[in-house]
Design brief:
mainly alpha, two-stranded antiparallel ribbon
Length: about 400
């Protein structure tokens, strides 16, 4: 019996795990199902941490913040941040028992000095903080990013091929996230209003979504034109570039579009070796033109914003379910408000308010300027929710 178990211990462990997991799932406990993934990550931390860094790059665009899912308000991104925590402890353990883990050139670099001074000051500020636990959490979150993505990253990027692998891994995850977003967006005819939320839960809004696409576009263009790669690889990179362009266009993020135009201008400036004084003259003339026409530019921009918010309200009045859309809100069994104008929200399932099919949906308040309670909404299509503690705000008057 013992010999048979030793010879087939993997199969025996799988059987035991399956039976135990089935019993726990019958008792409505599902977290035990992630045990194989946790064990695989622990093994990768010890056996091949470099490949785990590539997995982090791939999973970053696909990570989901638990706070966005309203799971107890825990601001942890899965699966990336738990892996970063584990790698941080592994890094600190290796530094404590082994010398030469960090290159002396990296330690003496001015950027390293600035980062360490910042971490040190953050640690000191924990003591007089009015919320020391919040300050400690912020310090630890910064620490695992610095330990893994800076100190371990410098060793990882010492080999040039790893740079290309890291960018390709991140692009692969980003292409999947963009593909999901485009599929969701296509259901609404690529309209501008749904572009604010169709990237959820991978991105909070279209601003961060468009920004990361614009940031990765130059890398994608570089990978397409890099010499020495096969036609298949070049074709895959070209496909990824086209997906990024489509994602940027349908993100309706003007800031990302303008930043990309600025990057193109900077590239031409460097490529054509234009003298610095020419750039200074162009910037000076542009500044003068803006200063002379500042009032007109500001008024037009404000009018555009007002028209955008008015359109959001008018969409509600034109809806076939106009009365319910303007004033009816109902809560799900979990206490999450649901928008009556969403097609799926009228069903029995608890659809979060952020999945509303129009931009007058409620959005979780994150900053002081967006912390207007629902009772303060001046639009007639909003009714008070039964759960004011969620502190949600109206997009139409945001």
């Amino acid at each position: 019996m013992l010999r048979a178990l030793k010879a087939h211990w993997i199969a025996a462990a799988c059987v035991v795990f399956t039976l135990l997991n089935a019993a726990l799932m019958a008792a409505d406990f599902y977290w035990f199902s992630v045990l194989p993934a946790v064990l695989l990550v622990i093994w990768a931390m010890v056996a091949t941490p470099q490949r785990l860094l590539l997995f982090i790059a791939f999973a970053t665009p696909l990570s989901i913040n638990l706070e966005e899912l309203s799971l107890g308000g825990i601001g942890v991104a899965l699966p990336t941040e738990p892996i970063l925590v584990g790698l941080m402890f592994l890094f600190l353990l290796k530094v404590s028992i082994q010398k030469g883990v960090i290159d002396h050139a990296i330690l003496r670099h001015p950027i390293t000095t600035i980062i360490l001074l910042q971490l040190g000051w953050m640690a000191v500020c924990i003591v007089p903080s009015s919320m020391p636990m919040v300050s400690f959490k912020y310090f630890t979150a910064r620490a695992w990013f610095v330990c893994v993505l800076y100190f371990m990253g410098t060793r990882f990027f010492a080999e040039t091929p790893n740079m290309l692998r890291f960018v390709r891994a991140f692009l692969a995850g980003l292409v999947i996230a963009i593909g999901y977003t485009l599929i969701q967006h296509a259901q609404y005819g690529f309209a501008q209003e749904p572009a604010h939320w169709v990237m959820w839960p991978f991105f909070k809004d279209h601003t961060s979504y468009g920004a990361i696409i614009a940031f990765m576009l130059p890398f994608s263009i570089t990978l397409v034109g890099i010499p020495g790669i096969s036609r298949t690889s070049r074709g895959v990179m070209l496909f990824a570039l086209l997906v990024l362009v489509a994602g940027l266009v349908f993100s309706y993020t003007r800031a990302a579009w303008l930043s990309l135009i600025g990057v193109i201008g900077l590239f031409l400036f460097m490529r054509l070796r234009i003298p610095v004084w020419v750039l200074a003259v162009v910037l000076a003339v542009s500044g003068v033109v803006y200063w002379v026409n500042a009032d007109q530019i500001t008024s037009r921009w404000s009018a555009t914003g007002r028209n955008h918010r008015t359109t959001s309200v008018n969409m509600c009045s034109r809806s076939p379910t106009s009365p319910a859309t303007r004033a009816t809100w109902s809560g799900s069994t979990a206490g999450t408000p649901r928008c009556a104008c969403s097609r799926s929200a009228r069903s029995s399932d608890g659809v979060p308010a952020r999945t509303c099919s129009s931009t007058h949906l409620f959005k979780r308040a994150r900053t002081a300027r967006s912390s207007v309670p629902t009772s303060g909404c001046k639009a007639t299509h909003i009714a008070n929710t039964s759960a004011p503690s969620l502190n949600r705000v109206c997009w139409a008057c945001y």
